[in-house]
Amino acid sequence: MREIQYKPSDDFKCLQLPWNPYEWQFGIRGARGTEFEGGIYHGRLLFPEEYPWKAPSFMFLTENGRFKTQTKIRLNWQSSWRVRDALLALVDEMDTYPDGELGSIKYSKGKRRALAMKSREAAPKYGTSERQKLIDEIHQNLLREAPVPVPQLQQTRNTSLARRCQVSNPPVDYFNFSFVLSCCNYLRLFLFICPPSLTFL
């Protein structure tokens, strides 16, 4: 369990509960290039006494659109895995649409993206004040290392610009001057070739 402290990662942060060596608080970053990018997802990591021969369980505290909150999740564990491997596998597992998997939910990509942006606003409230301090610390660390995705910002700017253009430039009905000018030229040519006979009374 100590390897996650000695080998830190930019993709997740973990802190052990001082009063319980078998439980850790974790936070993971949404995978780049997915609808979870930029999101910060908190959860609990519960180790059995038989670890690593028996799989730990995960429980999300942040609404994410992929896993139910406060519901135990178990990955296809391998005894050779360490916590780092499990957390990285959890990050990869989020960008899937399983059918009937225990503890899973299926939200649209748009909803998941909205939840990712919302997850940055504040850490979830859970448990005692001592536990909350750990959650808040993890959130602040990941927030500094997980800037808002550039595509998301660009999309927001483009949408705002389009809306401003719609307001400042209302539709205008244009008169087709080119068509009228062409008709006049044809008429002049016709009159030049076939001048009309004038009869004066």
Automatic annotation (TrEMBL):
Name the record gives this protein: UBC core domain-containing protein
Domain UBC core residue range list: 1-147
Domain of life: Eukaryota
Pfam families found in the cross-reference section: UQ_con (PF00179)
InterPro entries listed in its UniProt record: Ub_conjugating_enzyme (IPR050113), UBC (IPR000608), UBQ-conjugating_enzyme/RWD (IPR016135)
PANTHER family, per the entry: UBIQUITIN-CONJUGATING ENZYME E2
SMART domains in the cross-refs: UBCc
PROSITE patterns found in the cross-reference section: UBC_2
